[in-house]
Design a protein that fits this description.
single chain, 74% helix
Length: 155
């Protein structure tokens, strides 16, 4: 935190520095401080990559799912190929029991990044829970082909 805090002090108009300081606060579990830095980041540069996604993570942790969804969509407006945001939208939709939408975003995650292992596992679980073992097996086969190890709950 000290490095990025100093960077913000020395370059207070750098959205990049504020975004990274916010990330350090987030990783330290200081979500309110992270959110404040990310909001300041967007004041400096509304199109700063990753910031809307990061804000979505905070809102999701706070149970503010509509705000999280809006933040993720804002990220996709400026960074439509960011696989992590697609994955996070999938997690959000799974959390609020919108499994079909979750699967849609996890498929998009794999389309953008064929080695995004967690997307394969989440999709396999989704299809398994929806009695589509054939699709789950196909996903797991591709997951293994790419170097993944299938957890016991999906075997």
């Amino acid at each position: 935190i000290t490095f990025w805090s100093d960077a913000v002090i020395n370059s207070p108009s750098s959205s990049f520095n504020r975004n990274n300081l916010g990330a350090m606060y987030y990783l330290d579990g200081e979500y309110e401080k992270a959110l404040r830095q990310w909001e300041k980041t967007l004041e400096l540069n509304p199109n700063e990559p990753l910031t809307h996604n990061n804000i979505g993570l905070i809102y999701e942790k706070l149970g503010q799912y509509t705000e999280a969804e809006q933040a993720y969509f804002a990220e996709l407006q400026i960074n439509p190929y960011y696989d992590i945001t697609h994955f996070n939208l999938g997690l959000l939709y799974a959390r609020i029991n919108k499994g079909d939408k979750a699967a849609e975003y996890w498929h998009k995650t794999i389309e953008l990044n064929p080695n995004y292992f967690d997307a394969y596992l989440n999709l396999a679980q989704y299809y398994k829970l929806n009695d589509d073992q054939d699709t789950a097996d196909q996903l797991l086969k591709e997951f293994i082909r790419r170097g993944g190890t299938v957890p016991e709950n999906l075997q």
